[in-house]
Amino acid sequence: MNLTLKVWRQKGPADKGGFVTYEMKDINHHMSFLEMMDVLNERLEREGQEPVHFDHDCREGICGSCAMHINGRPHGPSKGTATCQLHMRLFNDGDVITVEPWRAKAFPVVKDLVVDRSAFDRIIQAGGYVSVNTGGVPDANEIPVPKKIADEAFNAATCISCGACVAACKNASAMLFVSAKVSQLALLPQGKVERKNRVERMVAQMDAEGFGNCTNTQACSVECPKEISQDFIAMMNREYIGAKFTSDNV
Amino acid sequence: MNLNSRIPEGPLAEKWEKHKFNVKLVNPANKRKFDIIVVGTGLAGASAAASLAELGYNVKVFTFHDSPRRAHSIAAQGGINAAKNYQNDGDSVYRLFYDTVKGGDYRSREANVYRLAQVSVNIIDQCVAQGVPFAREYGGLLDNRSFGGAQVSRTFYAKGQTGQQLLIGAYQALSRQVATGKIKLYTRTEMLDLVMIDGHAKGIITRNLITGKIERHAGHAVLLCTGGYGNVFYLSTNAMASNATAAWRAHRKGALFANPCFTQIHPTCIPVSGLYQSKLTLMSESLRNDGRVWVPKTVEDAEKIRKGQIKPTDLPEEARDYYLERRYPSFGNLVPRDVASRNAKYVCDEGRGVGGTGLAVYLDFADAIRRDGKSTIEARYGNLFEMYEKITGDDPYTLPMMIYPAVHYTMGGLWVDYNLMTNIPGLYALGEANFSDHGANRLGASALMQGLADGYFVIPYTMGDYVASLPFKKVDASHPAFDEAEKAVKDGINKLLSIKGTRTVDDFHRELGSIMWEYCGMARNAEGLTKAIGLVQQLRADFWKDVKVNGSAEELNMSLEKANRVADFLELGELMIRDALHREESCGGHFRDEYQTPEGEALRNDEEFSYVAAWEYGGFNGEPTLHKEDLVFENVKLTQRSYK
Amino acid sequence: MSWLTQTFSSSIGRKFLTAITGLFLIFFLVGHVTGNLLLFKPDEGRAFNEYTQFMTGNLGIMIVRYLLYAAILAHVIITVLLGIHNRKARPVGYTKQVPSPHVSWSSRNMGILGTLVLVFIVIHMANFWYSLKWGVVPTVNYAEAGEIKNLYHVVQSSFSELWYTALYVVMMVFLAFHLMHGFQSAFQTLGLRHKKYWPIIRSVGFWFSIIVPFIFALMPLYIYFFRNINH
Q1: Is the Cα torsion angle B8, B11, B13, B14 positive or negative in sign?
Q2: Is B337 a catalytic residue?
Q3: Digit-coded pLDDT (tens) for B418-436
Q4: What is the largest CA-CA distance in chain A?
Q5: What is the arithmetic mean of pLDDT over C103-123?
Q6: Which domain covers residue B359, as residue numbers?
Q7: Which helix (H) or strand (E) holds A237?
């Protein structure tokens, strides 16, 4: 099939950037979206131009590197799918496909479709862990965890940190990402010990990074490649208010 | 060169305990005087960095990803082995050790493997304490499953995302140390050279991938936790950016590269669909529990299927060849990875392969669905079927799945001693980057175990032994050795940019991959390997004459990054071929057509090849030198595998 | 007390205030709509006028009333602040953006809906509350209650105008959409989400958002069609 690609090109953070249109001929419908981008890039390289820069790595939907806003939606039109798992058979001959980077103040564009998502790392550094050193921990079966709780914690922990939640949110809010980690660790007995401090610090960092506020549109869950539930946002709200009013931090 | 593996004396079960007592310790107050460089943030790197920082060392961590959590450990699906014996089914440290040595076809060190089995139990405790959400039973205790044909259930898992959950646990431990300031994290920063002073590893040269700035980092020890080199084959289940550059550049500085030809080929991957294919996707091995592998009996039928004239479901039972069940009546579809892979290759070579390219075999669930019902099969494999359909567009409930083997893991790597130190003092290799524990073949669910064992429980003890002997002086990054290394890196980059040839980096990489797959893949022979050496040498020469890298060195330039990596693959590829050629036996993932039993099974030659082949760099076009570390088996009896 | 200011200047804290004030306003709507049902009583407005008289005179009610003004004001101020912050969080927007499936229109347009509801409140207050408090309102004399303000008459004359009736009805549609998201959103923000109760909250919220504005809208329609002073 033949396609028209409108791709955001931007030399660097200081560049204004703009769309460049590429005509794509004879695209095989078995290709993945990124393989189609590879074809474009190899052509550009042959022509002596710089390829379109985009983050990608595992191409199995688990590393969370890929991040393209395709035809108006993060990771494109397919449900529960990261960009790398999007396939061209979902598109039709003659389609015009618009590709943009994630847009958020907290995710500045680095180049073309590459954005800086280090804000997420800083949020985790603020408290997204259990403070145990290596060694000296109890036997793994010492504390039983109800299966339901373990499964729920796992569901939260499936987050791949791609940032689609922020990209999808009309307010560029990172609540789904942050709540997934807060909930995973608040649910498990191992994480309960520091749950109050954790949520206070992670939310403070989230706010400091310049993300927007949640208005409960639920778009984040809809666009999340791992379909992480809104339940966790509610849980974080509860955790946060509870912590603020009962923790020792004055 | 004398390869001293530093295996402690004494009975197998006491070696590690004794060794831990005998290694030198660094006083807690003195640890902060040492700077440790950790390259890579996968399971090995993240766990090592976190553990060392907790002990008090100053750690600098480098990753070429935008976040430490994106390392390729994240993609491991199946699980992690540990000799917990929670299932009361007869597992023990010794059994895990035995299975690993046997599974590795007796080409690994007994002492290392035993230690791996010993610390495996600590890993699970550690991960649970970190909040890793492992699968649990209704009673709240941890669940286990049997994996990769093991006779006991010792695999801990978190649905199909065990790698992700373990890596995030380690990443969080690392993040905690970043917050305390004990770890300084460098993201989007790639190591391009090792700096040596007086024969010791004292630092690295890196490139900031955003600004292109070449930087120098000095330290008292350098830990390479940079993963495997499966991407030599271009198509593999490795992530796109997984590369051998850090290990290879250390090799060029003198670190020995051990058993490079030992690569694992996984039998159940989604087949290649066309030339544009960028990578291969693994489907869990568990599928073989219920799926039946077959191809058409005749080349004619296969041809009709390939052309789309008939559908596989149209083919009557008597026209199908369930070749694994036919050849291996007792193990059937559950033969080990290498056997399943090799047989798929054979039937496709005969022209009986299916799919558009003829490089695929069927994995059919029709019988299982008839027997157990669709809902049972859906409960077992629902998510895998969904993933398959997403990628191929075919519904595996109605059409048989198509699979083909793909490169998955590399057992070879930098040679290390019992302390995980390479032959260069101060340079360590952890996880898949070293060669140590899996011999010629890795068991399922053991990669995660080794990465975390090295990082959490081995290196914190063994590194101290070396560091304790060093003076407290900071390493001087203005030493001429740094100038020299930095200049070499810059020259290399400028060279790549100045060639301005006609062929893209991917073009070269694809060609290298097809040479490697053809001659150094599932089945190898002297004739093919000899030919391949010439082909790779020619390709490498062409690369340095005709590669086209656009853009500049002072910006984010992914073509340049790739060019650097492919340049190293072009050298490593040749070493792999040479290693495969020299090893005149078949063992584990290394199968030589000339060395097989009358039944077509791998034929080991323990008399002559029971050693680790550690190669010394021989210069850009020079021949590498072979060093041998003899493997001594005092605790297990060497046997020949049979799956008939 | 810095923790308290910290709490309510944080993103979640502000949303918490939005939810609390929103829920308070929702409770108010229940009272308001119940009281105003008296408009339907065919007694020429006597019950309604007596109710109005009671509502203006009682001290407790007065406190609640000031709380209500404060809640409206707080709800508006906080959401405006949040809105400004949210705009800043995405300085460069998308060229092409398609709404995600299953995301309601109202949830994406709470700002516009809220503004329209606010405009309505201003008009509504200007017409009834202002005239009741400071305007000239005819009085009516009932046997026991004596001479009291005849707000019913004001209501009746207002809703005898077609445009005014239509404005109210349309505004109630906006209110319905605002509630449609606001009701459940408040519970979500307060963290009151549980597998068992969430479906109940959702359906109560849905029907509340339809029924309450519907009854409100019936009032002008009833008067326009059945108690119209111009007919």
Answers
A1: negative
A2: yes
A3: 999 999 999 999 999 999 8
A4: 64
A5: 96
A6: 266-408
A7: helix A231-246
Residues of chain A numbered 107-166 and touching chain C (CB < 8 Å):
none
**Which positions 209-228 of A are in contact with B (Cβ < 8 Å)?**
none
| Angle (nearest 5°) at CA B314 between B310 and B316 | 130
| Res B384: pLDDT | 85
Task: Name the phi and psi angles at B170, rounded to 5.
Answer: -70, -40
Q: Which residue has the tokens 């319905």?
A: C176
Closest-CA distance of chain B to residue A128, Å: 7
What is the phi/psi pair of residue C98, to 5°?
-110, 130
Q: Which chains touch C (3 or more CB pairs under 8 A)?
A: A
Separation CA C187–CA B643 (nearest Å): 61
Q: Please give the ipTM for the structure prediction.
A: 0.98
Domain count, chain B: 2
Q: Give pLDDT tens digits for B557-607.
A: 999 999 999 999 999 999 999 999 999 999 999 999 999 998 888 899 999
- Phi, then psi, of C142 in degrees rounded to 5: -105, 150
Q: What are phi and psi of B615, to 5 degrees?
A: -100, 135
Strand pairing report for A18-24 and A3-9: antiparallel
Cβ distance of A105 and C90 shorter than 8 Å: yes
- Would residue B464 count as lying in a domain? no
Q: Which of B95, B306, B337, B641 is catalytic?
A: B337
Tell me: do B492 and B597 sit in the same domain: yes
**Do A64 and B390 count as a contact with CB atoms less than 8 A apart?**
no
Indicate the residue among B391, B408, B425 that finishes a domain.
Answer: B408
Residue that is written with structure tokens 């003004």 in the block: C69
Q: Distance between CA atoms of B245 and B222, rounded to whole angstroms?
A: 15
Q: What is the pLDDT of residues C45-97, one digit of tens each?
A: 999 999 988 888 889 999 999 999 999 999 999 999 999 999 999 999 999 99
Counted across chains A and B, CB pairs separated by less than 8 A come out at: 214
B497 with B620, same domain: the answer is yes
Of B408, B433, B467, the domain-final residue: B408
What contacts A78, CB < 8 A, 6 or more positions away? A85, A86, A87, A90, B390
**What's the confidence (pLDDT) of residue B150?**
80
Domains (ranges, CATH) in chain A?
Answer: 3-110 (3.10.20.30), 118-246 (1.10.1060.10)
What's chain B's average pLDDT? Answer: 95
Q: Do C100 and A215 count as a contact with CB atoms less than 8 A apart? A: no
The CATH number of the domain holding residue B560 is 1.20.58.100
Statement: residue B402 has pLDDT above 70: yes
Domain C7-88+106-226: give its CATH architecture: Up-down Bundle (1.20)
Residue in C87, C90, C188 to test binding to A, most A beta-carbons within 10 Å: C90
pLDDT of residue C1: 63
A81 touches chain B (CB under 8 A): yes
- The DSSP output letter for B287 is G
Mean pLDDT value of segment B80-109:
96
Interface of C with A (CB under 8 A): 2-3, 6-7, 10-16, 82, 85-86, 88-104, 107-108, 110, 181, 184-185, 188-193, 195
B13-49 per-position pLDDT tens digit: 999 999 999 999 999 999 999 999 999 999 999 999 9
- B401 belongs to a structural domain: yes
pLDDT in tens, B439-478: 999 998 999 999 999 999 999 999 999 999 999 999 999 9
* φ, ψ at B238 (rounded to 5°): -65, 160
- How high is the pLDDT of residue A27? 96
Contacts A230 to C, Cβ<8 Å = 188, 193
Task: Extract the runs of DSSP E, i.e. beta strands, from A101-225.
Answer: 109-111, 114-115
Please indicate, yes or no, whether residues B294 and B403 belong to a single structural domain of this protein: yes
Residue ranges of chain A with per-residue pLDDT less than 70: none
Domain boundaries, chain C: 7-88+106-226
